[in-house]
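EI: anyone free to look at a 413-residue chain?
SC: sure, send it
EI:
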Amino acid sequence: MALVMARSPEGLIAVGAFSPASLARRSLGEEFSSSGQDFVVIVDSNNQVLYEAGRPPASEPGVAQHPGVVEALRGESGTAYRSINGNEHVVAYSPVAPLGWALVIEEPWEAVDNPLLSRTQAAPLILIPALFFALIALGFGIRQIVQPLRLLAQQAAELGWGRFEAIEPPVGGIAEIRHLQAQLILMAQKVKAAQQNLRGYLNAITAGQEDERRRLARELHDGTVQALVALDQRVQLTQLAAKGASPEAAERLAELRRLTASLIEEVRRVIRALRPNYLEDLGLLPAIEMLTRDLQTTADVQTTFSTDGQPRRLPPGQEIAIYRIVQEALNNAARYASAKSVNVSAVFNPTEFLIRVQDDGRGFTAPERVSDLVASGHYGLMGMQERAELIGARLTIQSAPGAGTTIELRLPL
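SC: here you go
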Protein backbone atom coordinates (compact mmCIF):
# COMPACT_ATOMS: atom_id res chain seq x y z
CA MET A 1 0.00 0.00 0.00
CA ALA A 2 1.01 3.62 -0.55
CA LEU A 3 0.14 6.49 1.79
CA VAL A 4 -0.67 9.89 0.24
CA MET A 5 -1.15 13.24 1.99
CA ALA A 6 -2.01 16.62 0.41
CA ARG A 7 -2.86 20.12 1.71
CA SER A 8 -5.71 22.10 0.23
CA PRO A 9 -5.69 25.92 -0.28
CA GLU A 10 -8.10 26.25 2.64
CA GLY A 11 -5.56 24.58 4.92
CA LEU A 12 -7.26 21.25 5.17
CA ILE A 13 -5.11 18.13 5.02
CA ALA A 14 -6.30 15.02 3.15
CA VAL A 15 -4.73 11.64 3.88
CA GLY A 16 -5.38 8.45 1.91
CA ALA A 17 -3.97 5.08 1.00
CA PHE A 18 -4.15 3.09 -2.28
CA SER A 19 -2.76 0.00 -3.86
CA PRO A 20 -0.25 0.81 -6.71
CA ALA A 21 -1.04 -2.53 -8.37
CA SER A 22 -4.77 -1.80 -8.43
CA LEU A 23 -4.17 1.70 -9.75
CA ALA A 24 -1.85 0.40 -12.48
CA ARG A 25 -4.28 -2.35 -13.40
CA ARG A 26 -7.11 0.15 -13.82
CA SER A 27 -5.06 2.68 -15.81
CA LEU A 28 -3.27 0.17 -18.06
CA GLY A 29 -6.00 -2.40 -18.43
CA GLU A 30 -7.60 -0.77 -21.48
CA GLU A 31 -4.34 0.32 -23.16
CA PHE A 32 -2.28 -2.80 -22.59
CA SER A 33 -3.33 -6.44 -22.97
CA SER A 34 -0.82 -9.15 -22.41
CA SER A 35 -0.33 -11.48 -25.37
CA GLY A 36 2.39 -13.71 -24.00
CA GLN A 37 5.19 -11.61 -25.57
CA ASP A 38 4.15 -8.29 -23.99
CA PHE A 39 5.57 -7.16 -20.64
CA VAL A 40 4.83 -4.18 -18.38
CA VAL A 41 6.27 -3.42 -14.97
CA ILE A 42 6.23 -0.58 -12.40
CA VAL A 43 9.20 -0.44 -10.05
CA ASP A 44 9.78 1.89 -7.13
CA SER A 45 13.05 3.51 -6.16
CA ASN A 46 13.98 0.48 -4.03
CA ASN A 47 13.68 -1.84 -7.07
CA GLN A 48 10.54 -3.30 -5.57
CA VAL A 49 8.03 -4.43 -8.18
CA LEU A 50 4.75 -2.60 -7.63
CA TYR A 51 2.96 -3.98 -10.68
CA GLU A 52 3.87 -6.58 -13.27
CA ALA A 53 1.98 -8.01 -16.25
CA GLY A 54 3.26 -10.43 -18.84
CA ARG A 55 6.45 -12.36 -18.59
CA PRO A 56 9.99 -11.02 -18.93
CA PRO A 57 12.52 -13.11 -20.89
CA ALA A 58 13.71 -16.10 -18.92
CA SER A 59 17.34 -15.10 -19.47
CA GLU A 60 16.99 -11.99 -17.27
CA PRO A 61 18.08 -12.52 -13.63
CA GLY A 62 15.52 -10.01 -12.35
CA VAL A 63 13.15 -7.24 -13.24
CA ALA A 64 15.61 -4.63 -11.96
CA GLN A 65 17.98 -5.61 -14.78
CA HIS A 66 15.32 -5.21 -17.47
CA PRO A 67 16.28 -2.63 -20.11
CA GLY A 68 14.89 0.79 -19.32
CA VAL A 69 14.37 0.30 -15.55
CA VAL A 70 17.61 1.94 -14.50
CA GLU A 71 17.14 4.79 -16.96
CA ALA A 72 13.56 5.48 -15.84
CA LEU A 73 14.62 5.49 -12.19
CA ARG A 74 17.16 8.14 -13.12
CA GLY A 75 14.32 10.28 -14.45
CA GLU A 76 14.95 9.53 -18.11
CA SER A 77 12.40 8.52 -20.73
CA GLY A 78 12.88 6.98 -24.15
CA THR A 79 12.80 3.81 -26.22
CA ALA A 80 15.14 0.95 -26.89
CA TYR A 81 15.14 -2.01 -29.22
CA ARG A 82 16.31 -5.55 -28.65
CA SER A 83 15.98 -8.90 -30.40
CA ILE A 84 14.44 -11.90 -28.64
CA ASN A 85 14.29 -15.24 -30.42
CA GLY A 86 14.74 -13.52 -33.78
CA ASN A 87 11.92 -11.02 -33.17
CA GLU A 88 12.50 -7.32 -32.66
CA HIS A 89 10.97 -5.86 -29.45
CA VAL A 90 10.40 -2.24 -28.56
CA VAL A 91 11.08 -1.17 -24.96
CA ALA A 92 9.51 2.13 -23.81
CA TYR A 93 10.42 3.52 -20.40
CA SER A 94 9.42 6.63 -18.46
CA PRO A 95 9.63 7.88 -14.85
CA VAL A 96 6.46 8.30 -12.77
CA ALA A 97 7.01 11.67 -11.09
CA PRO A 98 6.97 12.75 -8.35
CA LEU A 99 6.96 9.28 -6.78
CA GLY A 100 10.29 8.21 -8.28
CA TRP A 101 8.84 5.09 -9.85
CA ALA A 102 9.74 3.60 -13.20
CA LEU A 103 7.26 2.42 -15.85
CA VAL A 104 8.61 0.02 -18.49
CA ILE A 105 6.57 -1.49 -21.35
CA GLU A 106 7.97 -4.02 -23.82
CA GLU A 107 6.06 -5.13 -26.94
CA PRO A 108 6.90 -6.84 -30.23
CA TRP A 109 7.33 -4.48 -33.14
CA GLU A 110 4.30 -5.98 -34.91
CA ALA A 111 2.10 -4.93 -31.97
CA VAL A 112 3.44 -1.38 -32.11
CA ASP A 113 2.80 -1.20 -35.83
CA ASN A 114 -0.41 0.77 -36.34
CA PRO A 115 -2.76 0.93 -39.34
CA LEU A 116 -1.14 4.14 -40.55
CA LEU A 117 2.27 2.47 -40.62
CA SER A 118 0.77 -0.50 -42.41
CA ARG A 119 -0.58 1.81 -45.07
CA THR A 120 2.83 3.45 -45.29
CA GLN A 121 4.45 0.07 -45.89
CA ALA A 122 1.88 -0.64 -48.56
CA ALA A 123 2.49 2.74 -50.21
CA PRO A 124 5.23 1.41 -52.57
CA LEU A 125 2.78 -1.18 -53.86
CA ILE A 126 0.28 1.61 -54.49
CA LEU A 127 2.91 3.82 -56.14
CA ILE A 128 4.19 1.14 -58.51
CA PRO A 129 1.25 1.46 -60.94
CA ALA A 130 1.51 5.25 -60.81
CA LEU A 131 5.24 5.04 -61.49
CA PHE A 132 4.58 2.61 -64.32
CA PHE A 133 2.11 4.97 -65.97
CA ALA A 134 4.51 7.88 -65.43
CA LEU A 135 7.26 5.94 -67.22
CA ILE A 136 4.86 5.19 -70.06
CA ALA A 137 4.01 8.90 -70.33
CA LEU A 138 7.71 9.81 -70.24
CA GLY A 139 8.50 7.30 -72.98
CA PHE A 140 5.62 8.65 -75.04
CA GLY A 141 6.92 12.18 -74.60
CA ILE A 142 10.45 11.21 -75.61
CA ARG A 143 9.29 9.25 -78.65
CA GLN A 144 6.55 11.62 -79.79
CA ILE A 145 7.97 15.02 -78.79
CA VAL A 146 11.65 15.11 -77.84
CA GLN A 147 13.07 12.87 -80.57
CA PRO A 148 10.98 14.41 -83.39
CA LEU A 149 11.90 17.93 -82.25
CA ARG A 150 15.59 17.01 -82.09
CA LEU A 151 15.45 15.50 -85.59
CA LEU A 152 13.53 18.52 -86.89
CA ALA A 153 16.17 20.83 -85.40
CA GLN A 154 18.90 18.93 -87.27
CA GLN A 155 16.94 19.17 -90.51
CA ALA A 156 16.37 22.89 -89.96
CA ALA A 157 20.12 23.36 -89.49
CA GLU A 158 20.75 21.60 -92.81
CA LEU A 159 18.08 23.80 -94.37
CA GLY A 160 19.92 26.86 -93.10
CA TRP A 161 22.96 25.83 -95.17
CA GLY A 162 20.83 25.66 -98.34
CA ARG A 163 20.17 21.89 -98.48
CA PHE A 164 16.43 22.12 -99.09
CA GLU A 165 15.85 18.36 -99.46
CA ALA A 166 17.04 17.74 -95.88
CA ILE A 167 13.74 19.04 -94.43
CA GLU A 168 11.54 16.62 -96.42
CA PRO A 169 12.00 13.25 -94.59
CA PRO A 170 9.12 12.94 -92.05
CA VAL A 171 10.07 13.17 -88.39
CA GLY A 172 6.75 11.89 -86.95
CA GLY A 173 5.65 12.94 -83.50
CA ILE A 174 2.52 14.71 -82.38
CA ALA A 175 0.29 16.67 -84.76
CA GLU A 176 1.82 20.04 -83.83
CA ILE A 177 5.33 18.87 -84.76
CA ARG A 178 4.10 17.41 -88.06
CA HIS A 179 2.33 20.70 -88.80
CA LEU A 180 5.52 22.62 -88.01
CA GLN A 181 7.50 20.41 -90.39
CA ALA A 182 4.89 20.90 -93.10
CA GLN A 183 5.24 24.68 -92.73
CA LEU A 184 9.04 24.39 -92.91
CA ILE A 185 8.76 22.26 -96.06
CA LEU A 186 6.46 24.87 -97.62
CA MET A 187 8.88 27.64 -96.68
CA ALA A 188 11.81 25.63 -98.13
CA GLN A 189 9.92 25.13 -101.38
CA LYS A 190 9.22 28.84 -101.67
CA VAL A 191 12.84 29.74 -100.91
CA LYS A 192 14.05 27.12 -103.39
CA ALA A 193 11.73 28.45 -106.08
CA ALA A 194 12.90 32.01 -105.40
CA GLN A 195 16.52 30.86 -105.55
CA GLN A 196 15.90 29.04 -108.82
CA ASN A 197 14.31 32.17 -110.25
CA LEU A 198 17.28 34.19 -109.05
CA ARG A 199 19.68 31.70 -110.62
CA GLY A 200 17.76 31.90 -113.86
CA TYR A 201 18.07 35.66 -113.72
CA LEU A 202 21.79 35.42 -112.95
CA ASN A 203 22.22 32.93 -115.77
CA ALA A 204 20.57 35.37 -118.15
CA ILE A 205 22.78 38.19 -116.83
CA THR A 206 25.88 36.02 -117.23
CA ALA A 207 24.90 35.05 -120.76
CA GLY A 208 24.25 38.69 -121.60
CA GLN A 209 27.59 39.63 -120.09
CA GLU A 210 29.40 37.07 -122.22
CA ASP A 211 27.57 38.29 -125.33
CA GLU A 212 28.56 41.87 -124.54
CA ARG A 213 32.17 40.82 -124.01
CA ARG A 214 32.21 39.05 -127.37
CA ARG A 215 30.73 42.13 -129.03
CA LEU A 216 33.36 44.40 -127.45
CA ALA A 217 36.13 41.98 -128.38
CA ARG A 218 34.92 41.88 -131.99
CA GLU A 219 34.71 45.67 -132.18
CA LEU A 220 38.19 46.05 -130.71
CA HIS A 221 39.56 43.47 -133.09
CA ASP A 222 37.84 44.77 -136.19
CA GLY A 223 38.19 48.46 -135.37
CA THR A 224 40.86 49.44 -132.88
CA VAL A 225 43.41 46.74 -133.70
CA GLN A 226 43.04 47.26 -137.42
CA ALA A 227 43.48 51.01 -136.97
CA LEU A 228 46.60 50.46 -134.87
CA VAL A 229 48.02 48.07 -137.49
CA ALA A 230 47.36 50.62 -140.18
CA LEU A 231 49.05 53.27 -138.03
CA ASP A 232 52.07 51.02 -137.60
CA GLN A 233 52.29 50.49 -141.35
CA ARG A 234 52.12 54.26 -141.98
CA VAL A 235 54.91 54.82 -139.44
CA GLN A 236 56.95 52.12 -141.20
CA LEU A 237 56.41 53.82 -144.60
CA THR A 238 57.40 57.12 -143.02
CA GLN A 239 60.63 55.53 -141.78
CA LEU A 240 61.42 54.28 -145.31
CA ALA A 241 60.73 57.70 -146.79
CA ALA A 242 62.81 59.49 -144.17
CA LYS A 243 66.01 57.49 -144.47
CA GLY A 244 67.98 60.64 -145.04
CA ALA A 245 66.39 62.50 -142.15
CA SER A 246 68.15 63.52 -139.02
CA PRO A 247 68.97 60.85 -136.41
CA GLU A 248 66.60 62.52 -133.95
CA ALA A 249 63.64 62.13 -136.31
CA ALA A 250 64.54 58.49 -137.00
CA GLU A 251 64.67 57.77 -133.26
CA ARG A 252 61.26 59.33 -132.69
CA LEU A 253 59.77 57.29 -135.52
CA ALA A 254 61.29 54.11 -134.02
CA GLU A 255 59.87 55.01 -130.60
CA LEU A 256 56.45 55.59 -132.18
CA ARG A 257 56.57 52.12 -133.75
CA ARG A 258 57.49 50.57 -130.42
CA LEU A 259 54.62 52.31 -128.67
CA THR A 260 52.21 51.24 -131.42
CA ALA A 261 53.35 47.62 -131.19
CA SER A 262 52.98 47.69 -127.41
CA LEU A 263 49.51 49.18 -127.72
CA ILE A 264 48.51 46.52 -130.25
CA GLU A 265 49.69 43.78 -127.88
CA GLU A 266 47.83 45.34 -124.95
CA VAL A 267 44.59 45.60 -126.93
CA ARG A 268 44.96 41.99 -128.07
CA ARG A 269 45.44 40.95 -124.42
CA VAL A 270 42.23 42.76 -123.54
CA ILE A 271 40.50 41.00 -126.42
CA ARG A 272 41.71 37.64 -125.16
CA ALA A 273 40.36 38.48 -121.70
CA LEU A 274 37.01 39.49 -123.16
CA ARG A 275 36.74 36.60 -125.60
CA PRO A 276 39.02 33.63 -124.95
CA ASN A 277 39.63 32.33 -128.46
CA TYR A 278 41.89 29.65 -127.04
CA LEU A 279 38.92 28.34 -125.05
CA GLU A 280 36.74 28.03 -128.14
CA ASP A 281 39.46 26.62 -130.41
CA LEU A 282 41.72 24.50 -128.18
CA GLY A 283 39.71 23.79 -125.04
CA LEU A 284 39.67 24.62 -121.32
CA LEU A 285 43.17 23.59 -120.24
CA PRO A 286 45.11 25.50 -122.96
CA ALA A 287 43.01 28.58 -122.25
CA ILE A 288 43.77 28.40 -118.50
CA GLU A 289 47.45 27.86 -119.28
CA MET A 290 47.41 31.06 -121.35
CA LEU A 291 45.82 32.87 -118.40
CA THR A 292 48.68 31.84 -116.12
CA ARG A 293 51.26 32.94 -118.70
CA ASP A 294 49.59 36.33 -119.14
CA LEU A 295 49.58 36.82 -115.37
CA GLN A 296 53.28 36.06 -115.14
CA THR A 297 54.00 38.48 -117.98
CA THR A 298 51.84 41.41 -116.89
CA ALA A 299 51.89 41.22 -113.08
CA ASP A 300 55.36 39.85 -112.39
CA VAL A 301 53.96 36.86 -110.51
CA GLN A 302 55.62 33.46 -110.68
CA THR A 303 52.97 31.02 -111.95
CA THR A 304 52.88 27.25 -112.46
CA PHE A 305 50.25 25.17 -114.22
CA SER A 306 49.91 21.39 -113.94
CA THR A 307 47.38 18.83 -115.16
CA ASP A 308 46.58 15.24 -114.28
CA GLY A 309 44.23 12.66 -115.76
CA GLN A 310 42.77 12.36 -119.24
CA PRO A 311 41.55 15.76 -120.47
CA ARG A 312 38.18 16.02 -122.16
CA ARG A 313 36.01 18.76 -123.56
CA LEU A 314 33.18 19.99 -121.34
CA PRO A 315 29.93 21.68 -122.39
CA PRO A 316 30.58 25.29 -123.50
CA GLY A 317 28.60 26.73 -120.59
CA GLN A 318 30.69 24.82 -118.05
CA GLU A 319 33.99 25.67 -119.74
CA ILE A 320 33.31 29.41 -119.84
CA ALA A 321 32.16 29.39 -116.20
CA ILE A 322 35.31 27.54 -115.06
CA TYR A 323 37.47 29.85 -117.15
CA ARG A 324 35.92 32.95 -115.59
CA ILE A 325 36.30 31.53 -112.06
CA VAL A 326 40.00 30.84 -112.61
CA GLN A 327 40.41 34.24 -114.27
CA GLU A 328 38.87 35.99 -111.25
CA ALA A 329 41.00 33.97 -108.83
CA LEU A 330 44.21 34.89 -110.69
CA ASN A 331 43.26 38.58 -110.83
CA ASN A 332 42.52 38.59 -107.09
CA ALA A 333 45.87 36.95 -106.34
CA ALA A 334 47.77 39.57 -108.30
CA ARG A 335 45.67 42.65 -107.55
CA TYR A 336 44.51 42.27 -103.92
CA ALA A 337 46.57 39.51 -102.33
CA SER A 338 49.98 40.81 -103.53
CA ALA A 339 50.98 37.21 -104.18
CA LYS A 340 54.49 36.34 -105.34
CA SER A 341 53.59 32.91 -106.72
CA VAL A 342 50.42 31.20 -107.86
CA ASN A 343 49.94 27.50 -108.55
CA VAL A 344 47.09 26.27 -110.76
CA SER A 345 46.39 22.53 -110.95
CA ALA A 346 43.65 20.71 -112.89
CA VAL A 347 42.69 17.07 -112.43
CA PHE A 348 40.33 15.00 -114.57
CA ASN A 349 38.95 12.07 -112.59
CA PRO A 350 36.47 9.53 -113.96
CA THR A 351 33.65 11.07 -111.91
CA GLU A 352 34.65 14.72 -111.42
CA PHE A 353 36.79 17.59 -112.61
CA LEU A 354 38.86 19.41 -109.99
CA ILE A 355 40.76 22.65 -110.38
CA ARG A 356 42.66 24.44 -107.63
CA VAL A 357 44.18 27.95 -107.53
CA GLN A 358 46.59 28.47 -104.64
CA ASP A 359 48.56 31.65 -103.88
CA ASP A 360 50.95 32.81 -101.16
CA GLY A 361 49.37 36.22 -100.73
CA ARG A 362 48.23 38.08 -97.65
CA GLY A 363 45.02 36.04 -97.27
CA PHE A 364 41.85 37.06 -95.44
CA THR A 365 39.30 35.68 -92.98
CA ALA A 366 37.00 33.47 -95.06
CA PRO A 367 33.34 33.67 -93.97
CA GLU A 368 31.44 30.54 -93.03
CA ARG A 369 28.43 31.25 -95.26
CA VAL A 370 28.38 32.29 -98.89
CA SER A 371 25.84 35.02 -98.09
CA ASP A 372 28.45 36.70 -95.88
CA LEU A 373 30.74 37.33 -98.88
CA VAL A 374 28.75 40.38 -99.96
CA ALA A 375 28.61 41.77 -96.42
CA SER A 376 32.42 41.57 -96.22
CA GLY A 377 32.88 43.21 -99.63
CA HIS A 378 34.07 40.14 -101.58
CA TYR A 379 31.88 40.65 -104.64
CA GLY A 380 34.26 38.82 -106.95
CA LEU A 381 34.17 35.72 -104.74
CA MET A 382 30.39 35.94 -104.65
CA GLY A 383 30.31 36.00 -108.44
CA MET A 384 32.58 32.95 -108.54
CA GLN A 385 30.25 31.15 -106.15
CA GLU A 386 27.21 31.99 -108.27
CA ARG A 387 28.92 30.76 -111.46
CA ALA A 388 29.83 27.50 -109.70
CA GLU A 389 26.25 26.94 -108.56
CA LEU A 390 24.91 27.64 -112.07
CA ILE A 391 26.91 24.71 -113.49
CA GLY A 392 26.28 22.39 -110.53
CA ALA A 393 29.81 22.64 -109.12
CA ARG A 394 31.00 23.09 -105.55
CA LEU A 395 33.35 25.95 -104.75
CA THR A 396 35.34 26.03 -101.49
CA ILE A 397 37.45 28.93 -100.25
CA GLN A 398 40.19 28.42 -97.69
CA SER A 399 42.11 31.43 -96.44
CA ALA A 400 43.58 33.02 -93.34
CA PRO A 401 45.42 36.29 -92.77
CA GLY A 402 49.06 35.81 -93.76
CA ALA A 403 48.50 32.22 -94.95
CA GLY A 404 47.47 32.75 -98.58
CA THR A 405 44.25 31.63 -100.28
CA THR A 406 43.20 28.37 -101.89
CA ILE A 407 40.16 28.22 -104.17
CA GLU A 408 38.98 24.78 -105.20
CA LEU A 409 36.25 23.87 -107.68
CA ARG A 410 34.75 20.37 -107.97
CA LEU A 411 32.48 19.61 -110.93
CA PRO A 412 30.73 16.21 -111.11
CA LEU A 413 31.09 14.66 -114.58
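EI: The chain has a mean pLDDT of 82.
SC: 👍
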